[in-house]
Amino acid sequence: MVQSAPSVGIGKLVANKMAKQFHDLSDDHAIEGMIDFAQAGSPETGEFEPVILWDTKEEGLRLYIGRRAVTWQYFRQARDHGQRKHTFRTLGRFDPGYVIGSGVNPNKNAWEPPIHRAKWHIGSDAARRQARILAGKIEEGIGGTNAKEGPTFRQAFTGGFKNADGDTITGYLEYLQATGKSDRWAYNVKRLGEQFLLPQWGDWSLIEMGKRPMAVKEWYLGLKKSFDDNPTSANHCARIIRALYRRAASMDHRLPARDPISAIGKKEWHKERGEQKGMSGRDLHKWYAAWQGIPNATHRAFHLVNLLIGARPGELGRARWRDLDAKAMLFTMPDAKEENDIEIPITPEIVAAFELARKDKTRPNDVGTAPDDLIFPGCSNNPTRDALPARGHALRRTYKTVAEDWCKVPTQISEYLEGRMPEGVKGRYLLKWARNEGPAIIEAQRKVSRTIMALLHGKVKRAA
Q1: What element of type H or E holds 448?
Q2: What is the reported pTM?
Q3: Which of 46, 85, 93, 413 has the highest local Cβ count within 10 Å?
């Protein structure tokens, strides 16, 4: 830090650091002395107190000395037709800099080492020039919108704000719940908002976020540590901010066009973990050995059914006993990804896997085996505490591998058995296609079940 002789204004700082003090802020060396004194702490208590110094020449220009940063600000108030208006802008930061060496030579004619400052440094002359330019824009009525105006992030998230025209705008969360595109995504948005977004950005105005995208970027880059090196939720937070801001900006012209997430480059996004890969058929006997060590019968049934039918774990976790028809040998996957119910044929091996859950004596007392009871309570999010080489979507991909590579099941049929729309088959023709391919679909499911069970027991030669 460059040392300089105390200026005349420092005596006023001693009297009261928080008082509104006017100083000639045209000398950068004098400002450096004020910063040194202000950041040294109160003479009485030694504790730091922020200081605001107002310039005597440029109205509205002030220097805010904080604990870690010194900022040039423009603040001006006015009254128009009985209404008080104010303008607040952050013009930039003042860098006290540093010199290589110690002390300052009292001889004014002696050579002094140069002061090294950051590239973002704004001196007193540049700050006064920006203040004059901003004052002229305000007089012409083109000063723009204050960063503190407009809706806050909390209002845009939960609802209850009005745009510049006075129209009431619903919140982003309310919009998701009303459209009903994905109840699960709305639930995830609500949880991420409560846990991460609202505590950080709830009191920020959207205009301020749009004008300070680097603040959002720094928060995002540091958010990965909060998720134990799993950045998926961090990326979801960034996507929520972007969608919320763009929706609000389309209905309120006060918001800057550039969203806060635009500062994050493509290569700066956190890399998410790759998709769960399926197992090789020859490794299924190892999976079966680990599966036998799971103490909970319902969890064992959940994983085995997941492997035998290739279902999505979320869909399987929502299934109820009424969805299983053992007499007709049909299982209905409820509320599938395409927002419909999918009926697939099942085999005796699959029925036996379901029965493991029915016979589980450790099931919760409030979850029985009535038609409306869940088949796999507590397994909707794939119980990760079960030590298995593969689970969830990895088992779904394993089913696909066994069906096509080991059993030579046609792609369209394997996709249908997984609960997907077969490629090349439109939705309105699906029922007709399924009726025509009914015998082939049933035979394919039987073949896949026999093969998987053979691979689980290590009887590869008997497979298929």
Answers
A1: helix 438-456
A2: 0.49
A3: 413
Do 306 and 316 form a contact (C-beta atoms < 8 A)? yes
Q: What is the pLDDT along the chain (464 residues), one digit of tens a residue?
A: 333 333 334 444 444 444 457 777 878 888 888 887 777 766 666 677 888 889 888 888 999 988 888 999 888 877 665 666 677 788 889 988 877 765 566 666 777 778 888 888 998 899 999 989 888 877 776 656 666 677 889 989 988 777 777 788 888 988 888 886 667 788 889 999 998 899 999 888 888 888 888 889 989 988 866 655 568 888 999 999 999 999 988 888 888 888 899 999 888 888 876 566 778 888 899 999 999 998 889 999 999 999 999 888 888 888 899 999 999 999 988 766 655 677 889 999 999 999 999 888 887 776 778 888 889 887 865 545 678 888 888 898 999 999 988 899 998 888 888 877 777 777 667 778 888 888 998 999 999 999 999 999 877 654 44
Q: So what's the architecture of 281-462 in CATH?
A: Orthogonal Bundle (1.10)
Distance CA(252)–CA(149), nearest Å, equals: 12
Beta bridge partners of 55: 23
Q: 172-190 burial string, b = 16+ CB within 10 Å, else e? A: bbebbbeeeeeeeebeebe
CA-CA distance, 284 to 348, in Å (whole number)? Answer: 20
DSSP E strands in 218-371: the ranges are: 324-325, 330-333, 342-345
